[in-house]
Design goal:
The chain is an alpha+beta fold. Helices cover about 40% and strands about 20% of the residues. The strands form 5 sheets. The protein has a 9-stranded mixed β-sheet, with helices on both faces. Strand 10, helix 11 (about 270-280) and strand 11 (about 285-290) form a beta-alpha-beta unit. Mean pLDDT is about 80; it is low at about 565-570 and about 585-615.
């Protein structure tokens, strides 16, 4: 709970402060002339609430007017002793590898690119886009921005600084990264949705709201590959149906010469104009049919009873299907190959759920009627149950319930070209990965509500969610994590627990206590301990107000060490010391210089292959350098004399000491 006054802080009442009867404290500023009153009046600012004649609890105005005094309060301005670095490192590593961070920096600018990355990480961790929670959730994280900012600052950047042109330029730059060769053999899944928008925005219109309310909505459309990788997205007015919005999406893909193998679409795109546009663009397609289309009704009437548990229609995994050519729309001359699929497992589960819900509701209604109360039947069950005219009994519509039960588990697919029912269903199953992306994306966009006051603000937030979905998909599809059977949510949770610790001297250091699972995750993402040590050093320089580049990177401390200037460390006693033995540095340096000077001279023909001996001039005179003198020869050993045994020779005496 937020208080107007910070009751946990006590500060001196500023000079010139006045205490009112209700203990509020104000300060007079410059006089202001009021023409309607025709006299000057002091302008006041309210800074706190007095607790004595000299002290008070401050408010936010005091914090703004006296930032130095407020910053001096120790318990409010302690450094962050433990910072979460795992998600920051993972996001930066992925964004560097795929060029995402470069595109953000190029088209949004370094600071706004860092905000986009921070907000994307925040969305991945919390599955939310509520700006007011950003400051609390990211307080203890290492941030691209360097520090956490207030929700008002972030809202101002989103609303007034990041332009629509920047958003479009970034998305098109990302789309350019997918070449024709990469996408020509894969299917692209396109899907749309909408969120409620209570703000007074021209683009917010009535439509088929996903929240099942009468609110105005804003719609959005996403294109992802069959592996779930987002390639493009767009936001558009709420009253525009999905089958019309897809024309723009297809035109954009076509303008960038992206020719995928085909598109996979949900039932919202089962429209005559949409299918004609796909055929004109020569795009293959697989679309789920709406239940009220003529083609679906034809197939259901022909194969409803024949499909159920019949071997010749078995597709595997509890699926049974048949294909046929039907007229898809009743008033349109459009015949397509279509398939009717029955999912036995899904059908049984849905039937069990419907039966249990209806039986529980009937029992509840009877119980309320016995108590003399009028039961309220939920709208989604109103076609199965109704109250009698006198509201004393419940009427159960058995025929409608039976018809509903018999239709559970069936769905129809319309497709271009020639396919079997199994082939068409296999293509449509590619939506599984994209469906997960859409579900996560929707939560990152705020669930069912856009929390923005302009279409521009919605577009920027959607772009941040688009960045988050790209990063999340790379974690999801990482082969190293899949081999270790580590799912995306587990990876994010474990990455959050990798911390930097603040040591004396304002120095951050990585805590080398990673678990085996955390090490597996870091290895799968291509992160080493040295990379994290580099980030700890970077964060240390930031908090110590050293100049660091705003564009971050994953570096290595080993690579950052200063390069050698080519001189080798000379061993021995330091130069300048009095000792001039053969171990001194000055002696060694002179030896090296002499050797280098004589290296090019031809040796004298004296039969010796030895290199010339160097001599050193010292204060005591000429001194021979180390090694055998030039021209010396090994003296022959005399083996005629017997070798003396150990001990003092017989007859020797100790010499007197001098």
């Amino acid at each position: 709970m937020k208080h107007r006054y910070n009751l946990n802080v006590v500060v001196p009442i500023p000079d010139g402060g006045h205490i009112c009867k209700d203990q509020r404290v104000y300060i007079d500023q410059e006089k202001v002339y009021y023409p309607d009153l025709k006299y000057n009046m002091n302008k006041r600012i309210w800074v706190g609430k007095a607790i004595s004649e000299t002290q008070m609890h401050p408010n936010e105005t005091y914090q703004e007017q006296f930032p130095t005094e407020y910053a001096a309060i120790t318990h409010l301005n302690l450094p962050i002793y433990s910072k979460r670095v795992g998600m920051y490192a993972a996001a930066l590593k992925i964004a560097e590898q795929i060029g995402l961070y470069d595109d953000l920096v190029k088209y949004l600018g370094p600071r706004n690119a860092n905000l986009a990355m921070d907000f994307a990480v925040y969305s991945m961790v919390t599955k939310s886009n509520v700006i007011k929670d950003f400051e609390v959730e990211m307080q203890e994280s290492m941030l691209f921005l360097g520090k956490v900012y207030s929700d008002s600052w972030i809202g101002d950047i989103i609303a007034n600084e990041i332009t629509e042109d920047q958003v479009i330029a970034f998305k098109q730059a990302w789309l350019k990264r997918f070449s024709r060769d990469e996408l020509q053999n894969i299917w692209i899944c396109i899907d749309g949705s909408n969120n409620d928008c209570d703000a007074d925005i021209d683009e917010a219109e009535k439509g088929k709201a996903k929240s099942h309310t009468s609110s105005d909505i804003i719609s959005f459309l996403y294109a992802v590959t069959s592996t779930g990788m987002p390639i493009y997205s767009m936001v558009y007015r709420g009253g525009r149906v999905d089958c019309k919005a897809i024309f723009e999406m297809i035109s954009i893909l076509d303008a960038f010469k992206i020719k995928p193998k085909g598109v996979v679409l949900d039932r919202g795109f089962c429209d005559y104009d949409c299918i004609q546009e796909l055929k004109a663009k020569q795009l293959e397609f697989v679309i789920m049919m709406k239940e009220n289309t003529n083609g679906y009704k034809e197939l259901l009437g022909k194969y409803h009873d024949e499909l159920r548990f019949k071997w010749k229609y078995a597709l595997g995994h509890g699926l049974f299907g048949a294909s046929d050519t039907v007229t898809l729309f009743k008033k349109r001359d459009l015949q397509l190959n279509c398939a009717l699929i029955w999912d036995a497992k899904n059908g049984e589960e849905r039937i069990d759920y419907l039966v249990d819900e209806l039986l529980d509701l009937i029992d509840e209604c009877h119980h309320m009627l016995e108590e003399g109360k009028v039961p309220a039947i939920p709208s989604k069950y109103s076609k199965y149950l109704t109250l009698s005219a006198d509201k004393t009994s419940v009427i159960v519509h058995d025929d409608i319930i039976q018809s509903e039960m018999s239709g559970k588990g069936y769905y129809g697919l319309a497709y271009s070209g020639v396919m079997t029912a199994k082939e068409a269903n296999t293509v449509y199953d590619l939506r599984d990965s994209s469906e997960k992306q859409y579900a996560i994306l929707k939560s990152q966009l705020g669930g069912d509500v856009f929390r923005a006051h302009s279409m521009h603000g919605i577009a920027v937030r959607e772009t941040f969610a688009f960045v988050a979905s790209i990063l999340r998909n790379h974690i999801c599809m990482n082969q190293g994590l899949r081999k270790k059977r580590i799912d995306t949510n587990t990876a994010i949770k474990e990455l959050k627990l990798i911390n930097l610790t603040l040591l004396p001297g304002n120095k951050y250091q990585l805590v080398h206590n990673q678990s085996i699972r955390q090490k597996d995750i870091l290895q799968a993402l291509g992160l080493s301990v040295d990379n994290l040590d580099y980030l700890a050093d970077y964060e240390t320089r930031r908090i110590n107000k050293e100049m660091v580049h705003p564009v971050q990177k994953i570096g290595s401390l080993a690579a950052e060490k200063p390069a050698s200037n080519g001189s080798q460390k000379v061993q021995g006693k330091p130069e300048g010391s009095k000792a001039m033995g053969k171990g001194s540095r000055s002696n060694t340096k002179q030896d090296q210089s002499v050797e280098s000077n004589d290296a090019g001279k031809k040796p004298k023909s004296d039969g010796s292959s030895k290199a010339p001996q160097a001599t050193v001039n010292t204060a005591e005179g000429q001194r021979r350098g180390p090694g055998r003198p030039k021209g010396s020869k090994n003296k022959p050993k005399d083996f005629s004399k017997p070798k003396r045994g150990p001990g003092r020779p017989k007859g020797s005496k100790n010499k007197p000491k001098s």
